[in-house]
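Pair request: fold both.
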Amino acid sequence: MTNGFVKSAARVMAIFECFEDVKRPLTISELVRLMGVPQSSMSALMKSLLAQGFVDYDIRSRAYTPSVRVGLLGNWLMGGPQNQDNLLTMLQDLNSTTGDTVILGVLNGVEAQYIHVVNSYQRLRFQLRPGMLRPMFRTAIGLVLASQKDDSEIGRMVRRVNTEAERQEDVVVESEVMARVNDVRENGFLITANLATSGAGVVATLLRNGPSSRPLAIGIGAPHPRIVSGKEFLVESLLASVSKFASGRSSAQAA
């Protein structure tokens, strides 16, 4: 600790202040130059922030940008714009409408990461938290996001998952993955049960016209029996919310 602050914490905040200042993606070398920090330290910090979902990384440009998760963190302090263009408002409204847990997720390598969660207020529920990672092919969020990739890339990701699997139960079957991915492409949503969590189900779809350059997915999670009994209502509520949000974004962008 120096001058009353922890050096690594100060560096993390300075990184985000750099992004705020330049308002564009930055490479490791640019961050090193702007901050005067050793490259090894900067690489380690950015790797950690990426793993936790606080930054996005573009492999082609080798540049980082703050993630949507960072943008959502302080929204509650300012109240946020109270309109349909507000992502948090939409997620909260969907939670209020259904009574179930609402999840906003992205892909982080071959895992799905929950970057924002509005937990259910019902007595019987599964408690989730932002930052949680789940195998992408064992979550509705991950499978919905996989549907945006071409089949050959999905195949490569399946092989990577299976190569890195430490347990036999972590191995996935490519034909089963593709069947679910094609369900998403055909129907626009996916319903899963007992994939990431035994006894739980999720209805998920892609967030169209979202605020991030990375694809985002939204899911409604609940105990599986509640998903089964309320399937039509949950699907209708989810798709209507996403459609209204996308329309609001389009109108705002055209104004």
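--- second member of the pair ---
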Amino acid sequence: MAILSIFSGSYCHGEDVVEQVAEKLQYKILDKELLDATADRFKVSASDLVASLTGTSQFLKKFSHEREKNIAMLRLMLAELIQMDNLIVPGFYGHLIPRTIAHLLKVCLIANFDYRVGQTIKAEGLSEKQAQKAIHKDDQDKSKWTQFTNNSAPYSDRLYDITIPMNRTTIDGAVGLIFQHAQSDAVKATERSKKAADDFILAAKVRHTLAQAGHDEETYAEDGRVTIIINKYIVRLEKYERELKKIAEKVEGIKEINARTGRDYSPPSIMPLGELEMPSKILLVDDEKEFVQTLSERLLTRNLESSVVYDGEQALEHIKQDEPDVMVLDIRMPGIDGIEVLKRVKTEHPNVEVIILTGHGSEKEETIANELGAFAYLQKPINVDRLAQVMKAAYKKINDSAKS
């Protein structure tokens, strides 16, 4: 029978659906067991593994690769545990399983924003504003995860076989739909799909070995032939490929190993900011969620990683916890507007360089922004390479100030 991956937005009845599907199909839920087995085998804390799902600080990501190592451990443990069928892999973990395993059925439970707000208020007794904030935070964590694993938004249809709108479907209806699909011939385990699951173990072993050496690259395996897929720009590519293959050759069971660039590999039009002396920490602030998430994804292709928040209040709270080097800030937002955010940031965090990016600006607002200390004032739509150049200049200013 199938392996089910069920990923749910917050307050979309995910836990209820998972439990009822497991009972109806007599499936085992692979959640805490995966976490505990990984922690025990690799001698890491379960709390560190959980933190790695939503992301560690960017400083740790660049210099210690702690997140990549932890996720590689989880992936390898998961690859071994899913060799048995009749499993439900809930939440974040399902995004680690490759689509090459044909008896994997990927399900997404999601609902419109107003429905989720109503469910949050009902379940938690929160105000409408508090409920909206809680959902934004959860969506942000999920977005970071799926960008990391699949370079995609968390609820994108391309990640799933079935997407169920829970604002229009009862829990029983969702359970019945999943039950029906789980029993279809399309997701029955075959010798070929079981071989793909077995290949996943070898690919996960190689990726784990690479991660321990400080490299995070995709891996694919078939019949002992392993391919390492490089998606991030590397200056000396051939040398890097040789280095990766030399590390991977230590893994038992490899018959042949190759390295190549992937579809997301492209030389940046500017030198990656990651090569500057200080680690890059970027915060994007915009209430247009689709725009800012797309901008974050496009910056990532230029080796520029960013955090995303959707209003001024979230931005100010984020900065208190984790001060960025550069903030890209919209002006027209509900609640605390961009000008007020800029004023507070430059007063309380003067070292943060703020780039205003707006679609509704005026000369008066530009003058005010410049007087308050904005590094640049840009208009939407913006060419991503142009924005990257402005960020590069902002980092240069930061580094020059640090040296003086």
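Observation on the second member. The CA atoms of residues 170 and 402 lie 57 Å apart.
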